[in-house]
Amino acid sequence: MQSSRSFSFSRAVPGEVPMSKAIACLHEPSNFIGLSPYVISYHLAPSTEPSSTAVSKNYVISDRVNYLPFGLWTGQIDVPVTYTNQEDGVEVVKKPPVGITVLERWTLQPPTISNPQHPNVAELVLRAELHGNSVTLCMVEGIMKKSLESYIDGMVKVLQALE
C-alpha cells in the first residue's frame, strides 16, 4: 500500500551573508552532495530538457551502503537526483532503488523578526516528503529524518562560511 510521510526542519542562519549569495549557494548541487558522508562518487546525468531551457540538473550519486554491521559486507547504490532551482531555494527529488521517492524543498526565508542585535538572521527551512510502500517507509523514515537533520545543520555551516 502506498503511503507518505512529511516533516520539516528549520534553522537560524546567523551572520551577514547576503541573501543573493546564500541562494546562489543553495543553487549549487555540490554543496548538498558534499554533506553526505556516504557519497562515493557523483556525476552529471544527461538532461531530458533542451539545454537552452533546462532549469534542473540531474545527477547520479553513488552511495556506500552497509549491509551488515561493522562493515562486514558493503556495497553501493546509484541514486538519481534532480535539483531544480527556485527563487527562494532549491527543490531536490531523490529516487533511491528501494521503491521510495524523497522530495525535499530547501528555502531560505529572509529575516522576519526585528532583532537589533542580529538584524540579518535568516532562516533555512527544509520540508521533506517520503512517498512509497508503507512497509518500506516505516524502515527508512527514522534514518531519513536523522540524515536530513544532519544535512540542514551542515548546510547552515556552509552558509555561515560564506561570510
Automatic annotation (TrEMBL):
<dbReference type="InterPro" id="IPR055481">
    <property type="entry name" value="DUF7053"/>
</dbReference>
<dbReference type="Pfam" id="PF23155">
    <property type="entry name" value="DUF7053"/>
</dbReference>
<feature type="domain" description="DUF7053">
    <location>
        <begin position="5"/>
        <end position="159"/>
    </location>
</feature>
<protein>
    <recommendedName>
        <fullName>DUF7053 domain-containing protein</fullName>
    </recommendedName>
</protein>
